[in-house]
Description:
By secondary structure, this protein is an alpha+beta fold. Helix content is about 30%, strand content about 30%. A two-stranded antiparallel sheet has the order 1-2. Strand 3 and strand 4 (about 80) form a beta hairpin. It is elongated, with a radius of gyration of 20 Å.
Amino acid sequence: MAAVAAHKGIKPQRLAVDIERISQTGSTWQTRFGVRVDFGSGLSSREQAILFNSARQCEVHKLLTGEMVFDYTWAQDGTVRPSTQ
C-alpha cells in the first residue's frame, strides 16, 4: 500500500493492517483471516478504495489465496529422491 500511495501521490495519515487468524476444522482444514486496514483520516473515498484494492491485490494475498501444491523429496546419503507417498 505504501508503494501505491507514493506512486499515486496519496498521503495517508496512517497505514496499518491488523490480521486475525481464525482456524476452523471440518471436512477440510480451513484457515480464515480477518483483515482490518486503517488509513487514519483525511483521505477521500476514492483514495481509500485505491489503497484498499492494492492491499487485496498484493503478491502476498495472491500467494495465500491461490492453490498450494507441495512436492516432497527425501535425501539419503546425499542422494535426493522424490517421495513415493
